[in-house]
Amino acid sequence: MKFKSLLIAEAPDADKEEDKAEIETGKYQLFVNLVRSKEEALEVSEKYKKEHSIDSVMLCPGFDHEDVAEISERLGEDVGVTVARGDGPSGQIAKKAMEEAGWFS
Fold this sequence. Notes:
Layout: E1 3-10, E2 20-24, E3 28-35, H1 38-52, E4 56-59, H2 65-75, E5 80-83, H3 88-100
């Protein structure tokens, strides 16, 4: 049995049906899916739970505490939900790069 995890990241131009990947070893199966919104994240996480019996969901820093709570509640007690967070300077570096890429326009 493998540990199965889903990484969800938000991107303003994401296509949840096309922008996804899977990486697998003998003990780990990582699914990656880009989404545009919390609503899409809910949909995608429920789909992966149903179709792949995931154990964990990792969210990008764009998701707030309420989003995490809603996704966690929707998935139930058997799926862990975490958020990737960096320190202040790292967040500023990422924000600057995103601004330069036209992320917020």
